Amino acid sequence: MTSPQDQAAEQQAILDGHPRRWAILGVMVFSLLIVVLDNSVLNVALRSIQEELNATQAQLEWAVNSYTLVFAGMLFTWGVLGDRYGRKLILIIGMASFGLSSALCAFASTPNQLIGYRALMGFVGAAVLPVTLAIVTNVFPPAERGRAIGVWAGSTGLAVAVGPILGGVLLEHFWWGSVFLINVPVAIVAVTSVVLLVPESKDGSPLPIDPIGVVLSLVGIVSLVYGIIQGGNLNDWWNVEVTGSIVGGIALLALFALIERRSTHPSLDITLFKDARFSASTAAITLAFFALFGAVFFLSFYLQYVKGYSPLQAGLRLIPTALGLAIFAPLSEKFVKLVGIRAVVATGLILVSLTFLGIQFIEVGSEYWKLAICQAMLGCGMGLTVAPSTNAFMSVLPRDKTASGSAVTNAFRQIGGALGVAILGSVLASSYRAQITPALSKLPKDVANVAAESLGSTLQIVKANPGLPDTQTVVTAALDAYVNALHSATLVASFSAFIGAIVAFKWLPAKPPQSSEPVGSTH
C-alpha cells in the first residue's frame, strides 16, 4: 500500500514533470517525424513509381491507403500493448520494424508488392504515434502539456516541409526506392535515442487486446475504401464489385460498432464519444485530414504533370503548406488562451475550406503564386485545427489510459485521410474520365480505355505512341480535364472542412480544455 508521503511525492513529480522532458520531446518528435515523413516523401515519388512500375491510378491510391488503413486499424492494439508492456519498449519495436519494412518497400518490383510492403509499414508504424503522444503526456506537467502537444502536433508540419524536398533530392540522384531506403539509418538513430533518453512507463491495469474488433474494423474499412476507389476507377458505381464492397464494408463496420458497444474491452471505446469535447475534436480532425490527404495527393500530380516540374521543384513548391502548419500549430495554444478553443478550431477549418475554394481559380496556365497562397492558408488552417483539437481530446482521457485512448482519435485521423484519398480520388477519376473520353475518340478503343484511366496514363500513352492521331490535342485536353476534375474534388474537400467548422463551433468548449481528472489520478 502506498503511503501518504509516497502519494504526495508522486503527485509533486507529476506537477514538476520529468527533468529531461524537453529532450524526450525532441526524441518523440523525431520518431513521429519519420513515420509522418513517409507519406509526404511518397507524394513526390508517385509519378516515378507510376512510370517505373507501370502502376495504375488505383494502385497508386492503394500504395498510399494500404499504409494508412492498416496504420489506423492497429493504433488501438499498439496503444494497449504500450500500456501493458511499456511505451518505451513498444516504441523501440515499432521503429526498428519500420526501418526493416522500409527496406522491403525500396526493392519492390511490382505495384502489388509495394502495396503489400506498405501495409506492413503501416502495421509496425502504428506503434509510434500512440506511444509517443502518451510519453509526451506523461513526462510533462499539466501547465506545460498544451505547449508540448502543440510542438508534437506541429512536427507533422515539419514532415510535410522536409518530406517533399527530401524526396525530390533523392529522386534527382537515385531511383524511386531511395525514398524508402532513407528510413533505415534514420530509424537506427531514433531507436538509439529512445534507448538512451526515454523513461519506461506503463499502465498498472491495462486493457486486454480486442482481436475481433481489430479484424472487423480493418476488413470493413478496407472493403469500403476498395469499393470507393473501384467506383471512381471504373466510373461505374452500380458495378456489382463496387456496390458489394461498399455495402459489405458498411455492414461489417456496423457489426463492429455493435460488438464494441457490448464488449468489456473494446478497441473502439464508444463511451468516449459521450463527451462532446472528444466527439467534436475527433470529428474536426477527421474532416480536416479528409481534405488534407486528398488535396496533397492531387497537387503532386498537378505540379509534376500539368506544370512540368521535377520532383525536387514540386517538393519545394509544397513548402508553404508545411510552413503554415509548423508555425501555427505551436502558436495555437496562445490563440486558444486568448479566444478559446472553439473559435480557434472553427477558424482553422474555415481557412481549410477557403483554401479549396481558392483552388477553383487555379488553371493550367496559372502562375505559382496563386497556388502558394492557397497552400499557405491550408497550412495555417491545419495548424490552428490539429494541436487544439488534440489537446481537447487528450484532456478527456485519464492519465494512465493516454496511449490506448488517443489511439481512437488518431485512428479516425488516418481513416479520414484514407477516405479523403479514396473519395476525392474517385471524384477526380470519374470527372477526368468523363471529360477526357471525347478527346480520345480517334484512338483505338483498347488504347483509349487505358489512356482514360488517369492523366499519367494518358500522357504515357501519347509518349509511347507518337504516331497516334491528334496527340497534341489529346495532351491539351488531358491537362484541361485534370484541372477541371481537380476543381470538382476540391469542392468536396471544401465542403467537408466547412462541416468540420460547424461541428467545432457548435460542440467544442469556448474555454481552453481542462483535464477531467485530478492531477495525479490513475483511474
UniProtKB/TrEMBL annotation:
Cellular compartments per GO CC: plasma membrane
Predominant subcellular localization, coarse grouping: membrane
Domain named Major facilitator superfamily (MFS) profile: residues: 24-512
Protein's organism: freshwater metagenome
Topology class, membrane: Multi-pass membrane protein
Gene Ontology MF annotations: transmembrane transporter activity
SUPFAM superfamilies: MFS general substrate transporter (SSF103473)
Sequence intervals crossing the membrane: 22-42, 62-82, 89-109, 115-136, 148-169, 175-199, 211-231, 237-259, 280-302, 314-331, 343-362, 368-394, 485-505
Alphabetized Gene3D superfamilies for the sequence: MFS general substrate transporter like domains, Multidrug resistance protein D
The protein's name: Unannotated protein
Pfam families referenced in this protein's UniProt entry, alphabetically: MFS_1
Protein's UniProt keywords contain Transport: yes
Subcellular location: Cell membrane
Keywords: Cell membrane, Membrane, Transmembrane, Transmembrane helix, Transport
